[in-house]
Task: inverse folding
């Protein structure tokens, strides 16, 4: 229990800890959850601004994520700057179909000589860099994917994957329903934290790709949920980082 742990570390009563957490939640600094609190992720900047942030870290995540792609399949790459890095790292020899709602990702996939590219239509949202709304949702309904690379604004072992935009959350939930495997790659600043709208629980995430400096206790919390966790920068994406005895 978080409250018990904080009480011992700070040498104050659990009542004081709960009162302070309630005050922080009212101020919007955190979200109360069972047993404690989790940080609220700051609102994302526009896609154009985020592309310039943390390029080296995202490139490593992208390389590891792309190593998970199996040739001959049909995959969906969701909008997002880390997923754009995955698209840039897809091996040129792979033969596959890439479906996306992001023009930037479609443009990268078109450079692959053995890749068929399908672009979903609709209004492009500046924050996400992808098409959202009824048009994209209707197109999605008629497709099935071997893998989807799902974008995320925030992730917490208990609260799951969350985002800031309602339409984006609706689109991602539909995407997960159409996919056999869900892969999420994200930077360390997005975990553990929560955003406004729920997308999926951790139990629906097949593989989580994280940066190598993520603390082991944070990684273990996801492994306990049955998530296959990989560190970026590794040469063999087939090796599980941790396995908790069941």
Result:
């Amino acid at each position: 229990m978080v409250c018990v742990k904080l009480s011992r570390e700070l040498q104050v009563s659990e009542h004081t800890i709960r009162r302070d957490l309630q005050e922080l939640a009212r101020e919007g600094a955190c979200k109360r959850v069972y047993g404690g609190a989790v940080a609220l992720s700051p609102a994302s900047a526009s896609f154009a601004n985020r592309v310039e942030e943390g390029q080296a870290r995202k490139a490593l995540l992208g390389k590891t994520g792309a190593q998970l792609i199996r040739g001959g399949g049909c995959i969906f790459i969701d909008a997002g700057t880390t997923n754009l890095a995955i698209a840039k790292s897809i091996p040129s020899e792979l033969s596959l179909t890439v479906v996306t709602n992001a023009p930037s990702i479609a443009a990268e996939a078109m450079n692959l000589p053995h890749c068929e590219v399908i672009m979903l239509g609709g209004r492009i949202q500046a924050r996400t860099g992808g098409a959202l709304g009824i048009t994209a949702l209707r197109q999605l309904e008629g497709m099935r994917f071997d893998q989807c690379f799902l974008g995320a604004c925030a992730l917490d072992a208990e609260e799951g994957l969350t985002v800031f935009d309602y339409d984006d959350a609706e689109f991602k939930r539909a995407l997960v329903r159409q996919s056999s495997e869900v892969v999420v790659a994200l930077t360390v600043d997005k975990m553990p934290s929560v955003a406004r709208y729920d997308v999926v629980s951790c139990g629906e995430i097949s593989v989580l790709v994280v940066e190598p400096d993520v603390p082991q206790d944070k990684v273990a919390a996801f492994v306990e949920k049955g998530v296959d966790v990989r560190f970026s920068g590794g040469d063999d994406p087939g090796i599980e980082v941790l396995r908790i005895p069941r």
